[in-house]
Model the fold of this input.
Amino acid sequence: MQSRWNDADARQCVERLAGHGEDLALRVYTSRLIGSDPDLVLHGGGNTSVKTSVRDRFGRGVEVLCVKGSGSDLAAVEPHGLPALRLDALRELRPLPVLGDDDMVAALRSALLEPFAPNPSVETLLHAFLPHRFVDHTHADAILAITDQPDGERHVKAALGNDVPVLPWVMPGFRLAKAVAELFDRQPKCRGIVLLKHGLFTFGDSAKESYERTIALVDAAERYVAARAPRPAMLQPSPSVLPAAERRALLLQALPMLRGCLAVQEGAVEGPEEGILRTVRVVADARSGDDVAAFAAHRDARALCATGPITPDHVIRTKGPYLFLTRAEAADPAASRRRMREFVADYQRYHREVAPRYGNPQMRLPRPCVAVLEGCGLAAFGESRRAARIAADIAEHSLRVKAQAQALGRYEPLTEVELFEMEYWPLELKKLGSHDLRALPGQVALVTGAAGAIGCATAAILLEHGACVCLVDIDGDRLAKAQRLLQEDWGSDQTHMLAVTADLTDPAQVERAFADCVLAFGGVDIVVPNAGIGHVSRLEDMEPARFARLLEVNTTGTMLVLKAAAKVLRAQGSGGSVIVQASKNTFAPGAGFGAYSASKAAALQLGRIAALEFAEFGVAVNMVNADAVFGDGEVPSQFWEQVGPDRMRARGLDPAGLREFYRQRTLLKTAVLPRHVAEAVLFFASQRTPTTGAVLPVDGGLPAAFPR
Ligand SMILES: [Zn+2]
Done:
């Protein structure tokens, strides 16, 4: 590992943050260097601090500790992410024999200069009790590979020398802060301190010195591992590693099944949804790179998946053990479910045995966060895409570290009892944030015709309510534009979106769109066959080829999407919802709209058939009949681009006149907007009523089109 310190960049950071003083600016600079190296810390792990002086309201100088806020990410930290605390108020805590968590949090908050600053790191006192101006704490992979060992201390001495003292596992918080300070007092010339099975602290009088000590020590650990275990057996190619195409095939088969097993029905107990039974789902993030696949193919993989995390910091994101499935199990629903039940039983046993030592905290959901598939890769699960990604990143690093540790000696993490305290530490759990009370977190939707007015509005509303959305459209350029709009103008979460260009009249392309969705998110729960085209022609003038084209897109396209959806939904076995975008014309056709009305009526009939058939695996299928949805300036309706000119000619109207004509003919005298249609989709997608086979008109009220 090499230092990435760069004088010009450091100077630039000092200039950019001129109002904050050089100390804090350089603290931001090296914190970001550390945070952006996944071999040092991952996603909000690690913490850094600087001791400096600031002026209070009266202009008096105050000595403060600026320390990372709890759970924030070093990679993108800014000065406000390093709240300032009065140093004397922190240091005077050291002589106390004990300090409970609540008292510690209260003491930290009352030492904050700004009352509304974020909560400072749980390691704040450790930073405060050390005398150095700069202190850096990381969970570097190489340090963990040498310390997650039965004889970790011996490896540290051999790798880093005698001027880096070692502390056995101590629970973070006040106890650890005191232990580190006492160790430092005994060896004040040390370059850093290693916490066995946890990580590394370095310090210095300048930002550069402290940062470069971290790099030097991690580099020494990396060299030590490389010299003794240059090619960890668990990361080497072998005949039992599946070729890339077979990894993909296995993931396609296993992911929906695993997602289905992980879905649980529960009644919401808080918020506006109170009392409504809903299925709580997770999103998957799968990795099948060569390292992960090699690890998963090794004969020790199952045993190592059952071991705890490489640093206890990870336990809230990934739990301790990972679920391991052989290839045969991963391809067999019954076997997967059996393994899943065993995992749950084991987690319940762990909780039952250890919880009484720590005040019997309520058990977290006992399901696995990470599954490893033999010879293939891993999948991590979370209620949001972000949570799944964090767990997957951690799992990828963890498998590599476990392989290195195993090659060096024997991987040995914390005991279950030690780990439990960290997993159920309220200060750690706080980092996970509060429960997402929106309608669709953890759900995956696939919307066709997503670049059009209704499709784009539908995607927006599903994203807004927490779902991940696979946007499918035949027109790649329009799709890119819709995606940009969703992201930039409407603020949708970009990690929750996947854009797939596909022609829905081609069975292979429809299959591929669903495969892409499964590989990206783990499956699908909400399917919205929405793509459609229009054409105006009286029967006596009808070109057979145009008629056939409408049937192909509006009817066959819907059938192919329903067919591909059924395969994934059945494999998941956890229910779901299909909402077919039909049309007011299915009940109230219009002259000149033969091709459109007939092809959409067939699509509606397919939806009703799907309601009959998909009930077998718990999926509701409903239809939305919209009318005269023109779209807005940013996403015009393609349908009205196709049929609008003819309608205007037929009625002798300009564009505004045409809109007004359609508004006036509704009972409610209202214009129908894409957002209105999207609301109807959301209603069915959130499954608030046990309804299937229904048609909901969104047309402002047209008696001729009342469902029947
Ligand atoms: Zn730590």
Notes: Residues 137, 139, 198-199, 313 surround zinc ion (CB under 6 Å). The chain has a mean pLDDT of 93. The CA atoms of residues 5 and 451 lie 45 Å apart.
